[in-house]
């Protein structure tokens, strides 16, 4: 969820690991007396701490809190809303270590001829009628690639991650509750019966009824052994093997990544119409109500589709639209929606929060309760209010807590990075 919907440009000075450990120790770990401290962080406490200790800009402080809340909570934020402190610290750490990879925003004019030098110059026109545009051509599995990248980050920074959730960079012991905070990036298998979403129940020290703290070094070693080994990116692996980079394995890789976290992938749909209702996505549901309830727990990725019509009328937890061109897409209701690296789309979407990055020549018909977030290189985007007529929309929006009376489609917030800081512009009043 965080990598799909919550990654942002960051200022040059982000909190260090010792600072994050101290932050968790004060607000969500154990205090000096060894007793449990408060585990939740309010927006006022976060503003005060970030200003005094992290020296962050007020606008950015509010933005990261808002986005993390929307990515991890079901309801709408109020002045009294709070978030889990340790998980939020992990999010800040991920922003810091991922800052060079996220939303770089390479100028559009350079994309096709640099990335695809074998393509003839006269075929680079966006109106050339190719099945897939050079800009959105897929060179590998997006979901699988993201999973590999996150796995590599966790392997590389396991010690720091455990130190942050423990609230101390010198702690030798860690509790199961603290390990559970890593569930923000390491989710237990989706179909794991009886385990729910608690990561600690997978570890040998806490599979039974044990609650005693375990050695940080032992926990780190077990987690690293349980994780898949870090791998080279697909294009490097193909080059090392003497193969031409391709995407033959992408559907299988994406399906595997989706299955592990309860998701659905629509991949490489071309010149066709796709309609998916809640009962299509949840065929085992015994009623419409049960189908809606089941689909609300699922996420969907629509990727590398071209010249097609896609209508999703089921309520979903989150949706990513990636690398698509010349498509008409309807998302009737979802909590979080991200559109990335797309061109020439018509998207109608009802959601609580919308992110758009590195996309061009598209029209978005929006219902969103938050400022639409624009990241990277976006060009020729047209924003308009939600205009679809569906009898079920009002029911879906109520279920997902989307308030149709608070549509902020006309208040986009541009998030960009200058030399030393993050610049926020737009956003209406």
What features would you describe in this structure?
With 429 residues, the chain is an alpha/beta fold. The protein is 33% helix and 23% strand. The chain has helices at 2-5, 17-27, 43-54, 58-72, 85-97, 108-115, 142-156, 158-166, 176-180, 216-226, 234-240, 250-260, 278-281, 288-295, 393-399; strands at residues 40-42, 82-84, 173-174, 214-215, 263-267, 273-276, 299-303, 309-322, 325-340, 343-357, 360-368, 373-375, 379-385, 413-417, 422-426. Strands 5, 6, 7, 8, 9, 10, 11, 12, 13, 14 and 15 form an 11-stranded mixed sheet that branches. A hairpin with a 4-residue loop joins strand 14 and strand 15 (422-426). The chain is globular. 37% of the residues are buried.
How would a textbook summarize the main sheet? Answer: 11 strands, mixed
Question: What is the terminal-to-terminal distance?
Answer: 28 Å
Number of strands: 15
Structural class of the helix and strand makeup? alpha/beta
In round numbers, the mean pLDDT is 80
Secondary-structure element string = HHEHHEHHHHEHEHHHEEHHEEEEEEEHEE
* Residue windows where pLDDT falls under 50 for at least 5 positions: 31-38, 102-140, 191-195, 233-250
Q: What integer value in Å does the Rg equal?
A: 22 Å
Strand content: 15-25%
In helices, the fraction of residues equals: 25-40%
